[in-house]
Design goal:
single chain, 153 residues, mainly alpha, two-stranded antiparallel sheet
């Protein structure tokens, strides 16, 4: 890619005879610029063209990145909206589970009370009046059977 070849240039520190370190950019050869290079020299037309080409390519890439970020932000807004809907649905499920659990507990308690009432009703002892009437009914039944066998005369 011509773009990356233009941007990636090795920077080599060159030490001149007077001891000053002047950065020099090699043109692919890896060799420092000659000793006669003066950092204050004006740039050539080719250097200006290269710098403009690089700046234009960077601006084009940045514009593409801006479009990409706008699309990502749109997607993130959609995701946030869906996440809100899902969190409300999960909250409703939790509320329904709590309500269902409360109903189950109430129903179980009511069934337990009804079962205990039924057991108490069947296990309840006879009152004295109930016992007297049961004994009198038994005696009357026995007398009736005896009279029926002898013939009611």
């Amino acid at each position: 890619m011509a773009f990356s070849a233009v941007i990636i240039r090795p920077v080599i520190q060159h030490v001149s005879e007077d001891g000053r370190g002047l950065p020099s950019v090699a043109r692919g050869s890896g060799e420092p610029r000659p000793e006669s290079y003066d950092a204050r020299m004006s740039e050539s037309q080719q250097d200006a063209y290269d710098r403009g080409e690089i700046a234009g390519a960077i601006n084009a890439r940045l514009a593409d990145h801006d479009k990409h970020f706008a699309a990502i932000n749109g997607h993130l807004a959609d995701i946030a909206r869906e996440l809100g809907i899902m969190s409300l649905a999960i909250q409703r499920l939790g509320d329904q589970a709590v309500s269902r659990d409360a109903t189950v507990i109430t129903t179980a308690a009511a069934l337990k009370d009804a079962d205990e009432a039924r057991r108490n009703q069947s296990e309840r002892s006879w009152s004295p009046w109930s016992k007297i009437f049961a004994v009198l009914a038994g005696i009357a039944t026995v007398i009736g059977i005896i009279l029926a066998i002898r013939g009611w005369s």
